[in-house]
Design brief:
- The complex is a heterodimer of chains A (350) and B (315).
- Chain A is built from 12 helices and 10 strands.
- With 350 residues, chain A is of the alpha/beta class.
- Chain A is flat and about 60 Å long.
- In chain A, 45% of the residues are buried.
- With 315 residues, chain B is of the alpha/beta class.
- In chain B, 30% of the residues lie in helices and 15% in strands.
- Chain B contains 10 helices and 9 strands.
- The chains are: A alpha/beta (350), B alpha/beta (315).
- At the A-B interface, helix 9, strand 9 and helix 11 of A face strand 2, helix 7 and helix 9 of B.
Amino acid sequence: MRDLKIAKTDWAKGVEKLFGPYRVFGPKKEGLFHNFARLEKGEAPDFSCKNTRLSAKGLIYPQTEKMFEYTLDPNKPDHHVHKEPVKDYSPMAVLGIRPCDAKAFTLVKLNFDTPEYKDPYWIKNYAAATFVGLACDAPCHACFCTSAGTGPYDTAGLDVLLADAGDFFLAKVLTEKGEKLVAAAGWAGAGDAGAFEAKAKAAGDKVVSKVNTAKLAGKVTNDLHAAPFWEDLAFACINCGTCTYLCPTCWCFDIQDEVCGTEGCRLKNWDSCMYPLFTMHGTGHNPRGEKAQRVRQRFMHKLKYFVDKYGAGIHCVGCGRCVTACPVNIDIRRVAEIMNGYEPGKDCAV
Amino acid sequence: MNAMTDKIRQIARRLLEEGKVDMVVGFRKGTVPMMSEPCFIKDSARVDALVWDGNCGINLANYLTRRKERMAVVAKGCDTRNIVTHIIENQIRREQVYIIGVPCQGMIDKRKVKNLADGEVLSVEEKDGKVVVTAGGGEKSFDRTALLQDNCAICHHKNPALSDELAGELVRENPDVDRYEDVRKVEAMGAAEKWKFFDELLSTCIRCYACRNACPLCYCPTCFVDESKPQWVGKGQDPTDTRTFHFLRAFHCAGRCTDCGSCERACPMGIPVRQFTKKLEKDAKELFGWEAGMTLDARPPLDTFRPDDPGAFIK
């Protein structure tokens, strides 16, 4: 790890140089909101937004991804053979990802890249990416990253971390991938580790939203599952997929075949545990047929099952997207507090 | 606390204490600025959780179906029209709901506020027709009318169409408002231009179905997009499938939509999905003289046939 100082003029010139060796992605305003998008040469990543509306998840794990193609036409020599579609796994530079989103990839990795199971699409995309983070000096009021195992200057999952210091960026080069990227961009000025640390400390203090999660691991799963507060917490939910689709850590997907005539492909699409179809059995039976069961599942997964299974904290990085975008104000911070404080038999004020 | 909130609490307390209803469906204060959360109250000791303000834009008619309880519901003009629609579509029984009608001054558009505020919005207070927005960069005051949701700005049924009790004085309606300026613009476009307009409109859609699920009209046990035998629509991000979902959903709302704006309010991407439903609302009005949810005593045009129904579209 080493420190760099990059004047903003050198930053712009360096970004220009990345087009070519890298496919470049960064925040871009589309409609009302910023989202990560592929940038064309001449375009600069727009760092004016606090965070993108959708997380950076889709860069590595697209909402719809083709797994393979096939033909059912017996006259074709390769009929009924799975064919890998042509995909671009060349190096990608992701500029301006917030530390929460980068940390989220390390949690998602626990699911997609295990000794037992490997999702080849996710793994290849992730391996192709170099993440240049942008530290948060002005965290949003709904952000609670410091309660979720990360923070505005967290380096987890990042290759480079930038801190905006006015006319220049202070940067930390964190990995070999990061070294390659800064070399390609030509950024080499020596940095100031002390100034970086001071900014990091100041930013951490600005995260005002705190959530207690320490007791979750010690709770009895069945007590939480049977707790009386779910009906109240779930009442407002309309069972849309906003929270799960905006979430950087939600990883569930659905597999669909789409066939037109004799030509077909298999797709991996984001799915959501909020949808009744998510658990619908072929028999017609649905083990989570009621809204309250689905809402409970989402929070139990994020705040209890994941905690117990991986010992890596909660399945949440505190980015606050679900908090601000939920159409009916179901707030994971409130749910976490209620779960964390719940004692069976005691009245739980909701 | 405002007078409306006070009155709603009084009514709710009385109804629960008298055992007239099992629960009251209303709003409680949200955890973030410009959000109130739909909630239910079963215990009269807890009615003080109920609030009423300009952030109660979600349509509570959506929370009444498939329930066994006798319910009181806090309902603004459009909500009551959707309750009427539920009743005539046999989704709820009239005697199952006690309607606490709220004459409505319109709901605040949180996206407009966010665009106009100086930095991140920290708090929003309504007082005397003004809205004071405190943001990271300082405080600003706006006329309430400048911050209304688009559908509220052109609302002409602010007062309840059906209620058992009012929580406030009736407000002045605006019957002459031009509701369809935007629809006429789209109607005037050529086919290619229309196609482009709709494509761009839907380009950021993530198929989360917040619009559908916030809509009281969308109560089908299985939505056509979720059916698998036959599968009408692909489930990926192919623009054809996204368009199919939005177009068909809008057609299913023809003659039923009250323009409550819940769909737009719920959309996490800020897509103006009312552009579809409004065209059908306009058609229902022009072709059949019909406005949804205004009466329990007439059948909607799409579930009746009259020999003189307009048929100019049959060529």
